[in-house]
Amino acid sequence: MTFRHPPKLSGFTLMELMVVIAIIAILAALLLPVLSSGKGRAQAIKCVSNLHQLAIAATLYSHDFDKAVAYTDDLGTPKAGDIWLSLLSRDYANVDALRLCPLAQQVADGTYWYAEDMNHAWLFKSLVDPNKSYTGSYALNGWFYSGLPNPNGYYFTKFSSVQNPSMTPFFCDSIWADVWPDETSGPAIDLFRGAVNPDFGRITIARHGIAAGNVQRAVSGTTPLLGSINLSFADGHAEQSKLQSLWGYSWHLNYVPPAIRPAASGQPPPWPPTP
Fold first, then answer.
1. DSSP SS3 for 17
2. What is the per-residue pLDDT across 141-154, written as a single tens digit (0 to 9) for each?
3. Quick check: is 68 in a domain?
């Protein structure tokens, strides 16, 4: 009788194993940027959707009350209000769920009014209730407030006074809860931190449209700005805009776009802030 031995099983050699690991590493290096880019696009789409819905809610408010967004608490008393977020959250469903950009959801420790940087949210302490605070990643175009002094005639005191709805920003990415851009206001110098003053500094942050490592930290003069933010407009649509293009929109009543963008001048605000 003849006995046959089972076939000898061959295993990986060390060299073959190293080749397989190297191939996996190369594929991972190729795929991770693609996956990261896809995630970034999904977050940007969510951000645009949030801003679109905020614009719809504020438009409904404006039609319901026949005025732009009230700066008071709108409860029939003269005391100061709690910004647009309080107003809209109280009267219109789901607004509270729309206040944060997916790329800036956390409030950094020590935050007082403005966000630490483009990747964090701002904190607004209630002017009515000392135990209440609001957080968000977006700003209301402050020229939509009603109930404030209007010596220059810049405010859209009624929603119907908007002359070019598709070019008039309503809400946008920001390190502060509201913003009053004008033709003479320049951008932030540090597009990662932003600036509190001048007002364009609050929204000239490279939150979208550019790799984190390429964000400009020392813009000088009229050097072109890299990166983008998302905005919604008075006609309800929302879109992404390059920072360099922000001066071309109709920010306030009778706004005239400057021929040349003002020079960068907004210094990063102190961190941590002083309460």
1. helix
2. 999 998 888 989 99
3. yes
